[in-house]
Write a structure and sequence with these properties.
Chain lengths: 390, 247
């Protein structure tokens, strides 16, 4: 049923676009709707040594549909479609990994074969009402409260795995948001993210204001089983960007095993004249593990992150250099270091724009850490990606 | 006493010749592209020896200290917005629904991979405030009589150029040529303005070429597709909260 509805929606978008674009209403339709997105092909080669290389493939399509109904109402729907085949399908848990659910399920496997999966998910579906300084938004949306690069302790609604570079849009949450803007960059926002009860819901209040060149936000929230208090800022020291985020999570139930936790991240960014950009960030997790023996490669790859636990260990660093070689190509190298585990991830990237709307990029994720008391290479993944944007 | 009688007319004469002082000329030329408010649709083309990349942006400006730019093409960058309020700059990235505050160092970088710096794109007015201006001669360019004006940075001015030479035509006050030098007096960029067209009652060069000296075969082209002055722009266009709604 769900599968048919999804198929029908995709069909409907394509149909209405082609039909209406031929009709008289053309001008209204053309003026007030937009369809954009991409088709990406991603090949992943995972290996520990060259004798055992696992290959996976994905065709990843995104359809962003937006309709400006009138001056006040905006409708937004975005669909993520993925066709997957390759070695990983042999893993019995792979389907769960692909079909990560919100509490309201808007996803389905359109093709579910042993050797081929086609997964479709509506990850944005919202209606926005703007009037004066107010904005009301209901539905599946991305509420992004992050301020720093890399780790976002303030981003209560959409935490994500730093290494999942192919899904920058993130799943979105089923929420209601009320926002009031005042002044040049000040606002108050209240947001509620649906959960089956209060201990699965997020109810949060955010105030944003500026002091000199600093944009500052304060957050108070019911974050599932915790009370969360957050502070975030964006500003600069001389000509370098200086951003920070800190969130304190206090368990509501005194008798529970859960501890009060604080997560703090700081980041700096600097742009050089020659096209080089340097980003550096540090994350402190007061509840992090410090025992280097407990290191597990899954910590890098784990999917089920929360704002309360952005990294499993106490202290993590990331340093990234991006170089814009020319308008068509850029190269980057990132180094992530988990201090407590003495584990390192190397993250090289090279991107090239083949021609208008066609891009290709190479990404690597090479992991090094202690195994049997020896520092060695533990896991690698190389990604080749081709992208067509429309 | 006799001397002053000789010198005075010369003083008067010379001031008469440059009744237009260099600052006024540069200001008039700068003003020409400015107004209380403006809207422009611009095509930017980055040219390299083997390929080129095109980008279309819409910009709204107000009183030269507020401006906002929306990328409308290519598809990959569509919807990206830059907002400047005085010296602060924000960048809205639609794919992640986030507004990022950019550090001042970002202003000296190439604008989205072109030869223009972010400074060139959104902070041009500093040519009036941060530089001293002097008329260095007159030249005929593309059939137009021009003033050649040399700009040198004021002490302690935070600017990227060590010297700028501009050729401004005497009739329409259009900048037809420009040369941008670094602190060591090396020529870094050249500017060529041409194809003068009338937009909203003002005759201005609709085509401009920025040519970096050290990279032969590279250049950035700017074409005005639309240009309107003194159009009514709501105040909210220059706020961070409106960036995601701009279209």
């Amino acid at each position: 049923m769900k599968k048919n509805i999804l198929l029908f929606i995709i069909f409907l978008i394509v149909q209405t676009t082609t039909l209406l674009s031929q009709e008289k209403k053309k001008s209204w339709w053309k003026e007030n709707t937009s369809i954009s997105g991409y088709v990406k092909y991603l090949n992943t080669a995972s290996f520990r040594d060259f004798d055992n290389i696992y290959s996976d493939n994905m065709i990843h399509n995104r359809i962003n549909f937006k309709m400006y109904i009138n001056d006040n109402f905006t409708f937004d729907m975005q669909i993520r479609n993925r066709i997957l085949w390759g070695e990983s399908l042999k893993n019995p848990y792979f389907k769960d990994y692909i079909d990560v659910q919100n509490d309201i399920d808007l996803s389905a496997f359109l093709i579910d074969e042993k050797a081929l999966l086609f997964h479709s998910k509506i990850d944005r579906l919202s209606l926005t009402y703007n009037t004066g300084n107010w904005e009301f938004k209901i539905g599946r949306q991305r509420i992004n409260w992050g301020k720093t690069w890399a780790w976002n302790a303030n981003d209560l609604f959409n935490t994500y795995n730093l290494l999942d570079f192919d899904y920058e849009e993130r799943p979105g949450s089923d929420a209601i948001s009320i926002l009031y803007n005042y002044g040049e960059s000040s606002l108050v926002q209240a947001a509620y993210s649906y959960g089956k009860d209060i201990d699965h819901s997020i109810i949060a209040l955010r105030q944003q204001f500026s002091i000199k060149s600093y944009d500052i936000q304060l957050i108070e929230a019911n974050y599932k089983t915790d009370i969360a208090l957050g502070l975030g800022w964006e500003g600069y020291i001389k000509s370098a960007g200086f951003k920070g985020e800190s969130t304190l999570f206090i368990p509501k139930d005194n008798n529970s095993m859960a501890k009060t936790v604080v997560l703090t991240s700081l980041s700096m960014d600097y742009f050089f004249k020659n096209g080089l950009m340097i980003l550096g960030s540090v994350l402190y997790n007061s509840d992090g593990i410090t025992d280097s023996k407990s290191f597990n490669i899954q910590y890098f790859l784990g999917e089920s992150l929360s704002a309360r636990n952005l990294m499993p260990n106490k202290l993590s660093f990331i340093l990234q250099n991006n170089l814009q070689i020319n308008p068509a190509s850029s190269a980057a190298i990132g180094i992530m270091y988990m201090y407590d585990f003495k584990a390192v991830a190397l993250l090289p990237n090279y991107s090239y724009s083949i021609k208008e709307n066609w891009d290709i990029d190479f990404n690597g994720q090479l992991f090094f850490g202690k195994q049997n008391d020896k520092f060695s290479n533990i896991q690698n993944a190389l990604y080749l990606r081709l992208r067509y944007s429309y | 006493m006799k001397l002053i009688k000789i010198i005075l007319p010369v003083l008067l004469l010379s001031s008469g010749i440059s009744a237009q002082n260099a600052y006024d000329i540069v200001k008039k030329s700068d003003d020409k592209l400015r107004s209380a408010t403006s809207f422009a649709k611009i095509k930017i083309t980055a040219v390299r020896p083997s390929w080129s990349k095109e980008m279309i942006i819409k910009t709204w400006t107000k009183n030269s200290n507020y401006s906002v730019a929306l990328v409308t093409s290519p598809a990959k960058e569509k919807g990206i917005v830059f907002l400047r309020r005085d010296k602060e700059v924000w960048n809205y990235v639609p794919s992640i629904s986030r507004t990022i505050k950019l550090p001042p160092s970002m202003m000296t970088q190439g604008w989205m991979g072109t030869d223009l710096t972010n400074d060139d794109m959104i902070k041009q007015s500093s040519i009036l405030v941060d530089y001293n201006h002097k008329i260095a001669g007159e030249e005929l360019i593309d059939g137009y009589n021009t003033w050649k004006i040399v700009l040198t940075p004021k002490e302690n001015a935070a600017v990227i150029w060590g010297k700028i030479i501009m050729w401004i035509d005497k009739e329409e006050y259009n900048q037809l040529r420009g040369e941008y030098y670094d602190e060591d007096n090396f020529l870094i960029n050249k500017l060529i303005g041409s194809n003068i067209k009338e937009f909203d009652g003002r005759k201005i060069p609709s085509h401009m070429e920025f040519i970096p000296e050290d990279n032969p075969g590279n250049k950035t082209l700017i074409d005005y597709l639309e240009l309107n002055f003194n159009t009514k722009i709501p105040e909210k266009y220059f706020t961070t909260s409106y960036m995601k709604r701009l279209r």
